[in-house]
Amino acid sequence: MELLYQYAWLIPVLPLVGAMLVGLGLISFNQGTNKLRQANAVLIVSLLGAAMVLSFAILWSQIHGHAPYLKTIEWASAGSFHLTMGYTIDHLTALMLAVVTTVAFLVMIYTDGYMAHDPGYVRFYAYLSLFSSSMLGLVVSPNLVQIYVFWELVGMCSYLLVGFWFDRKAAAEAAQKAFVTNRVGDFGLLLGILGLFWATGSFDFEVIGERLQDLVASGALSMGVAVLLGVLVFLGPVAKSAQFPLHVWLPDAMEGPTPISALIHAATMVAAGVFLIARMFPVFAGLPVVMNIIAWTGAFTAFLGATIAITQNDIKKGLAYSTISQLGYMVMAMGVGAYSAGLFHLMTHAYFKAMLFLGSGSVIHGMEAVVGHDPALAQDMRLMGGLRKYMPVTSVTFLVGCLAISGIPPFAGFWSKDEILGSAFGANPALWGVGWLTAGMTAFYMFRMYFSTFEGAFRGNQKEIQVQLLGEKDGKVVGAFGPGAMDPKELGHGAEAHGYHSDSPHESPVTMTLPLLVLAVPSVLIGLLGTPFNNYFEGFIYPPGELHPEVMEVASEFDWTEFAIMAGNSVGIALIGITLASLMYLSRKVDAAAIAVRLQPLYQLSLNKWYFDDIYDTVFVQGCRRLARQVLEVDYNVVDGAVNLTGFLAVVTGEGLKYFENGRAQFYALIIFLAVLGFVIVAA
Amino acid sequence: MPLEFFLLLAAALFCIGIYGLITSRNAVRVLMSVELLLNSVNINLVAFSNFLDRQNINGQVFTVFVITVAAAEAAVGLAIILAIYRNRDTVDMEQFNLLKW
Amino acid sequence: MDVANLASQLNAGAILPEGAVILTLMVVLIGELALGRASAARWTPYVAIAGLLLSVGLLCLQWDLTPTLSFLGSFNADKLSIVLRSIIALSTLVTILMSIRYVEQAGSSIGEFMTILLSATVGGMFLCGAEELTMIFVSLETLSIASYLLTGYMKRDPRSNEAALKYLLIGAASSAVFLYGLSLLYGLSGGETHLSAIANALAQGTNHLGLLIALVFVIAGISFKIAAVPFHQWTPDVYEGAPTPVVAFLSVGSKAAGFALAIRLLTQAFPAVVEQWQFIFTALAILSMVLGNVVAIAQTSMKRMLAYSSIGQAGFVMIGFVIGTEAGYASMIFYLLIYLFMNLGAFTCIILFALRTGTDQISEYAGLYQKDPLLTLALSLCLLSLGGIPPLAGFFGKIYLFWAGWQAGAYGLVILGLVTSVISIYYYIRVVKMMVVKEPQEMSDVVLNYPAINWTPLGMRPLQVGLFVTLIATSIAGILSNPLFTLVNNAVVEVPHLQTANAAKTPMAILPTTTPELPAPLVSNSDSTAL
């Protein structure tokens, strides 16, 4: 067993090795490496598979009560300053390792089918592997510095992958937007880390927590400063987990290939924010103000995401907003102190949302065969419908995902969401109210998505809708704020295999459907680990600082009536949502358009994503530009003058001084003797 | 004779060497000036050795080494001057400024 | 005193590593004469590499031995000298890797080149441990004269000739000045030639002016070797004219030997005038950092730019030297170690480019990325590391240097170092930008006609090996810097005279408890590792 832990560092290193090998191959023997497409993929997938096996072994041993393991090496030490690097294995890490490796593994298998004909196939695998490595490294990090390093690395991989088709304007802009938005959060996080180090002299989560408590208690550090530091650190998760107000980058990030949306922007990287909150729990737990901020940010984000998702017609965008909303739930759970509930939802969400995204990729793939490669058509749900006939596997798995996310028992999402709502009710009924309402909306928009995609009649051949959609697209500003477009090249597969004007969509190849089926299993079953009457999950994941028996004690005080009320409420609203959706989009008894017209302001608000992009565009982008122009004026005349002058002086002195080098040896000798003389005089 | 006389002689020789090194246009003369510099050091060493260190005569041993090294240096120097003369047909220091700036 | 007794007193085992190099030198020299020049190219470099590896191995074996003075106190094989000797041997090793193809393509004899290069190495290695004036002088001259020969090795190239002549004249002049300083030292100490004895004798001496003159003269000789401004003017000319592998050796091996000499001679023989030599070196450091980095901006030749960059880098290293603390010396040696890899890596890339295109003008590198991504990556990493961009090795080297300087209260120097390293980033990035950013149509002509990449000709494989070794070292030595840092710390801690220099300085003004910017050490590490 010990041996297993000693070699746990292999988990992040194995994918790194894969990425390095393939990356080096790409750099030095570009064409040769690109020719060995499948061989590269097999190498990378099998390395990740090995990491997955190791992760499960570790999870198994942790479940069986192995003590947490920590191994550090001194990375840099200079006098009194020590910085250690290493890895830590505890319950949280073991869980995250298992989740990340399984999702990454399945997404990689899916990628083989999805990217089969893309010229960047090998590069894509190298990036995927690099990302997996960074994410796993993040998960095993024992201190804040190392977390920050990997935090930036996963961010970098995300930008690389969002902008994978960097020759497309929209993708490049989306990558830039993600970069800028994340920078705001990362800057806060960095400030927070440095501030906490300044205050406590440590990068270690628990030590920071303890010392911060002591400092605040003894009055050495004012509460305000402590709260400020906490909020600064929280800014990191706000950006990475796409929380209000830094959520705007995530929907645009759907410009990346669909496997990326599933892996990075649904299952793993965006959950890193929640993970960081969990790691920093000892710090946040002592700062009630920060906890409240976290809870309300989460609640508001959950509500916001759901309201926007209701009106999205682009299937990937809809899922993106749903992700934002679900991340809001997790953050809210963290904020109300429901540590294990939040992480439980993280886990269940990772599985079912990855499955939903992969399913959407499969749908788009199928649609390509009919409507061609314009993403405005292939991803628009108004052109879909009736796909269940053509894509049975995809539709069944998608339905499972919808049920899971809507919180219908016994699917996974029910248990985790219910636990969060229960905790939220205990903390503040208002939070519960928001969450409850959101749950209803979630059920509604998910089933709206399901019904308009898979049920009814297939609308893909109706030319007039296509023309209308294309017109809409042209009318809009296409760019960073445009519809989540897919690259025509991305789905070259369909075109080449079938020629793209067949009349009906088709089911995706087995490499794509298999991961869907595999993911469906945890989406159905994994929730049973965390049933409130027999909560294995809570027995495994509990906040640092609480002892295991305590947790079990609390868990055993289970009240059936209370559970029935809470669960009844949430299932009730979910069912209402589903019914409404079925009335509007399945049987068409209620006309959605009519409602939209009657609730015009609200409809527009949602359709335009609460105008956040426009507000940001006006306030920040335009404002920044205006400010920048004005600053530029000043800058150009004053500051720039000074800086340029310095630069100019440096260049001119360089140019001038170089003529001292007149090439005559005797002059050099003279200088030497004069220098000697000069130094003698000065020193004496 | 006191020690100072020898030191003054050495210092004067050193200064002459420097003057020659800086002003000569002929590369061979420059090399000879370098030899002057080294010889002034030799005078210094032998003088110190005679006045201060009669037991070990370290200075005189040092001088032998300096002479040897100076010979090696002169040999290498002349070889280089020979090579440059073959390529450029001149040993004028003023002409050697291909490398500058 | 019988022979056996004498032999045991000599303690000749201490110079086994140098012995290995000398033996290799002989084998190469005689072998080439016996077997002929044509076949020599095929085996001499490998024999030389094997000999140097053996030498480094022997140095490693010496690490744990208690340091002893050998040759009646002339040679000190302490850990400091072991580290510095290894740096010199390693720099020669990498230089050989990159020189085989170069010398071969120039049509010169490679056996002779190896012989001269190895003699320079022997001189440099002896210099690192020399504790006696005669020994210092002889080993210094061995290094110098061999370097003159190497510089003029392309004897049909007038530029190489001219570089050699300039190097020889300036070198001879400054070594004469150095020697004059040594003779004064000998006289002032009343006839002592061992450094420690000189220091003892000088402690009672009264002739302050004489001592100062001796000091300045000695510093002039040292500064010539490390190319500190204003004793630097030979550097750009020699770097431009000399064969590129030789330049690589001069910029690393020869410079390391110069610093070794500086540490040993100044700290050991001049404790009486610590203030003065630290003052002079501060001035040299300031001048070197400013002038080296500023003039580098104006260069158009890659080799000349690296010449000025090496002057600037020497300025950074001098920060560690002048502050006179243990951390300062350690960070200085650490930087030399890092510098070895990144600078030699950069030179390997330049040689590779020159071999393929025949030029070293910076403007000719435009658009190289399109044709040779590997070379672009390697050169970019090395240059960025030289500029001190994290997470490359050079960044950590600079951080340690500046940190040590800041701790010792040399705020001005550190700030100047930061400013000038920002300037240096400008000209390093310029090259990277030239290679990477240029559009295909802006490609220079030589890059446009870039030959197909071919690693098969004689000597290309070693070049490739050298490239990868330096590249990997540059990329990861910073992140895994702790073992290296422990190494140099150990090397410094056990050298007594470095402590005396430290003690002679006024106590440091910095107390960790009074600075909120640098809080108490991380107590947590010990806790967490216990888990």
What is the chain-wise order of helices and strands of chain C?
HHHEEHHHHHHHHHHHHHHHHHHHH
Mean pLDDT of chain B: 92
Segments of chain B where pLDDT lies below 50 for 5+ residues? none
Q: Which two chains share the most extensive interface?
A: A-C, 54 and 62 residues
Shape of chain C: globular
Report the helical percentage of chain C: over 70%
Strand content of chain C: under 5%
Please describe the biggest sheet of chain B, giving its number of strands, its sense, and whether it closes into a barrel.
Answer: none
The structural class of chain B is mainly alpha
Biggest sheet descriptor of chain C: 2 strands, antiparallel
Write the layout of secondary structure elements.
The complex is a heterotrimer of chains A (684), B (101) and C (531).
Chain A: H1 2-6, H2 10-28, H3 30-35, H4 37-63, E1 69-78, E2 81-89, H5 91-114, H6 121-140, H7 144-162, H8 169-200, H9 205-218, H10 223-240, H11 249-252, H12 258-267, H13 271-279, H14 281-285, H15 288-309, H16 315-335, H17 339-371, H18 375-378, H19 387-390, H20 392-406, H21 412-427, H22 429-454, H23 463-475, H24 492-498, H25 510-525, H26 536-540, H27 548-556, H28 560-586, H29 592-598, H30 600-607, H31 612-657, H32 665-683
Antiparallel strand pairs in A: 1-2
Chain B: H1 3-23, H2 27-52, H3 58-88
Helix pairs in contact in B: 1-2, 2-3
Chain C: H1 3-10, H2 16-35, H3 37-62, E1 69-70, E2 75-76, H4 79-106, H5 110-129, H6 133-151, H7 158-188, H8 195-204, H9 208-226, H10 234-241, H11 244-269, H12 274-297, H13 302-322, H14 326-357, H15 368-371, H16 373-387, H17 393-407, H18 411-436, H19 445-448, H20 460-476, H21 481-493, H22 496-504, H23 524-530
Antiparallel strand pairs in C: 1-2
